[in-house]
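Protocol step 4 of 6.
Sequence for Isoprenylcysteine carboxylmethyltransferase family protein (Roseivirga seohaensis subsp. aquiponti) entered exactly as in the expression construct, tag removed. Do not edit the line below.
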Amino acid sequence: MITVAYLLIVFVFRSIIVWRQSGVNPFVFSSTENAHDYLGFIYKMAVLFMAITIVCYSYLPAVYQFLNPIPFLLRDSIQMVGVALLLISFLWTLIAQVQMSDSWRIGIDYDEKTELVVKGIFAISRNPVFLGVVVFYIGIFLILPNTLSFTLVLVMFITVQVQVRLEEVYLLETHGEAYQAYKNSVRRWI
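Step 5 output, structure tokens:
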């Protein structure tokens, strides 16, 4: 239930709010063959496989066993850390999205110039939304430790690393010296 709430509030509802406020669809990924849109495909597949993991655990325990649960991580204390990470990720990501306001996008809109956000949580991390997403997947892994959820953490970490670098090139081209100064003063993650 936490996962569904996270996805709905952080991605669906925030997208609707930004679209209504700005008139721009913040979901930018399409289905072309370029690297940026391929990353969007990977994000969608990661959400699908995360949902499969949760459904198998919740409703199909015999099938869940095929995901190779990691027994030594199946401890209440570790699962509580996972739940705490989900909650922290949710709040962190939501705050970052609210602070981005109309500049928030899922992907890179090469045809539009948005405001460069450098205050609030963005004074601590240049990529707080992506950081929140990675922490979210780590939380899911700690709650449901298995080979698929571990693989999803690795896939998301690598995918986010590539996405961030694509965005850095775009932001440098779009905002020039202002972004370079920001990049020099604020760390990529935290």
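Step 6, annotate. The radius of gyration is 17 Å.
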